[in-house]
Amino acid sequence: MTGAVREQAESFTSLDPRTSEVVGEYPVHSALQVRAAVERAREAQLWWGGLGFAERKRRLDAWRQLLLKRLDELAGVMCAETGKPLDDARLELVLVVDHLQWAAKNAEKVLKRRKVSSGVLMSNQASTVEYLPLGVVGVIGPWNYPAHTPMGSISYALAAGNAVVFKPSELTPGVGAWLVSTFAEVVPEWPVFSLVTGFGATGAALCKSGVDKLAFTGSTATGKRVMAACAETLTPVLVECGGKDALIVDADADLEAAAQAAVWGGMANAGQTCVGVERVYVVDSVAQEFIERVTRIAGRLKPGAEPTADLGPITMPSQVSIIQSHIEDALSKGAMAVVGGKESVREPYVEPVVLVDVPEDSLAITEETFGPTLTINRVADVDEAIRLANGVRYGLGGAIFSRARGMELARELRAGMVAVNSVVSFAAVPALPFGGIGDSGFGRIHGADGLREFARTQAVTRQKFKAPLQPMSFARGSRTVRRLLRILRLVHRR
Ligand code: NDP
């Protein structure tokens, strides 16, 4: 279907990328239908918000138990729509369950009204701050981690007392439908969590539908369009976009661990991971040994359709030519392929490709590849590695392998999250905020910051007693402000 024709269609199918078999059919929701869903969600939110933290936690815990019990059912839907290996789908759901528990358990502690000091000059006031639900949150998600990524917003937004209207990627509507229908089993009263499906236009309609916040995860280009659409109604946005994460290998690193991590970080999920390793910078003195280890590990990996394959297919067909162009561009600029090469691209699969000595102006270094490819460049020292790692527009995640200087080097990386002596592990720690800077977007999901992203801050002062001085009143005496200044000087004497 061409763009214009598909946007006007009433329904669309989701396909298994391994076989092109149709695995589901879903409606293309119009702007009117999206708006109606948001209106229903607004009513539902009044009820959900009114339940309070304890009852919401009870419901979210029940949903978590259901997800646990039927984990393989959802994993099956994820495999069918993305083609990813079964254990990768299961692993993704481990994260979903853990984050859901954290959000439900910690929402009250993080968001409830708490006292803050009023300071000496305002000591007649009791001051509090509280984080109240925003209302209806729109969530637009990608296809690569069709459960974990949107749930990073959905779990936290629901725990904070919001209703959610979710628009999954057109490639993975079945995963979205499964999540929404199972939530309704534990919360049957109101459509607190609802689904709209369709193409980009349905997502664009959600941006303009009057939601109180829009949480977007996807590419930087679409992120900019989402932000522009939301600007029309001053709808706040959270934008989680792509990355070009670097892994740095210091001279004293555990080379086997670093090589295993680089290959897993770069190739798992067929490289379709926003915080996947795309670039490696290795200190010259250990580079040869490191490259040999990576070559041995990556050379053994095979993509395939079977549930036990190392890698699945490239889920989004149009991505295959991008991966191919990055490989070709690097080779034409003088890079060397130590694993795979141009011939590794066999749609819908891409076999692992490891490129060494890749010029820094190559597309494989500057643009997100989103395929099972790794670049490895040698550097004189870690300072050069940091400079090159930070030399891209993206700033999502990163990894450092170093025995002595891991924490020190982590601070030098221009990235929202860093793993020291591992990869991607920060995504599995629910208490840690997740998000990037630069072209990787802004705002945070996960952790206390992730809960507060879906809340409006309210500051309240309550007068406990009438202050002897009343400077903020037209009834103040002529000497009131002078007295106040005397007190001020006493208080700020040092
Ligand atoms: P896209 O940007 O193509 O799409 C993301 C979502 O936006 C989809 O649901 C898509 O719908 C929707 N969309 C498309 N056009 C519009 C529009 N004009 N207005 C509103 N919504 C729209 O990304 P992908 O799905 O290809 O996902 C891959 C990208 O996501 C990669 O760049 C990856 O790095 C990033 N990502 C970032 C993560 C992070 O947390 N930082 C995590 C996971 C992925 P449809 O599919 O129907 O077109």
Give the topology, please.
Layout (H helix, E strand, L loop, with lengths): L2 H6 L2 E5 L6 E6 L3 H39 L1 H12 L3 H26 L2 E3 L8 E9 L2 E5 L7 H12 L3 E5 L5 H14 L6 E3 L4 H8 L5 E5 L2 H12 L5 E4 L4 E5 L5 H13 L9 E7 H16 L19 H14 L3 E4 L5 E2 L2 E2 L2 E4 L6 H4 L6 E7 L2 H8 L4 E2 L1 E5 L4 H7 L4 E4 L16 E2 L2 E2 L4 H7 L1 E9 L16 H12 L3
Parallel strand pairs: 5-6, 5-8, 6-7, 8-9, 10-11, 10-18, 11-16, 15-16, 18-19
Antiparallel strand pairs: 1-2, 3-4, 4-22, 9-21, 12-15, 13-14, 17-20
Helix pairs in contact: 2-4, 2-6, 2-7, 3-4, 3-6, 4-5, 4-15, 5-15, 9-10
Bound molecules: NADPH dihydro-nicotinamide-adenine-dinucleotide phosphate.
NADPH dihydro-nicotinamide-adenine-dinucleotide phosphate binds next to helix 7 and helix 8.
Kindly name the structural category. alpha/beta
Rg, nearest Å: 25 Å
At the fold tier of CATH, the topology name of the largest domain is: Aldehyde Dehydrogenase, Chain A, domain 1
Total tally of structural domains: 2
- Biggest sheet features: 7 strands, mixed
Q: What report would you give on this structure?
A:
Residues 7-460 form the Aldehyde dehydrogenase domain. With 494 residues, the protein is of the alpha/beta class. It has 2 domains: 11-241 and 446-456, Aldehyde Dehydrogenase, Chain A, domain 1 (3-Layer(aba) Sandwich); 245-430, 3-Layer(aba) Sandwich (Aldehyde Dehydrogenase, Chain A, domain 2), CATH 3.40.309. The chain contains 16 helices and 22 strands. The chain has helices at 3-8, 31-69, 71-82, 86-111, 148-159, 173-186, 200-207, 220-231, 255-267, 284-299, 319-332, 363-366, 382-389, 406-412, 447-453, 480-491, and strands spanning 11-15, 22-27, 114-116, 125-133, 136-140, 163-167, 193-195, 213-217, 237-240, 245-249, 277-283, 336-339, 345-346, 349-350, 353-356, 373-379, 394-395, 397-401, 417-420, 437-438, 441-442, 455-463. A 7-stranded mixed β-sheet has the order 12-15-16-11-10-18-19, with helices on both faces. Strands 7-6-5-8-9-21 form a 6-stranded mixed β-sheet, sandwiched between helices. A 3-stranded antiparallel β-sheet has the order 3-4-22. The protein starts with a helix and ends with a helix. Residues 140-145, 149, 167, 169-171, 199-200, 203-204, 207, 217-219, 222, 225-226, 240-243, 274, 316, 368, 370, 396 line the site of NADPH dihydro-nicotinamide-adenine-dinucleotide phosphate.
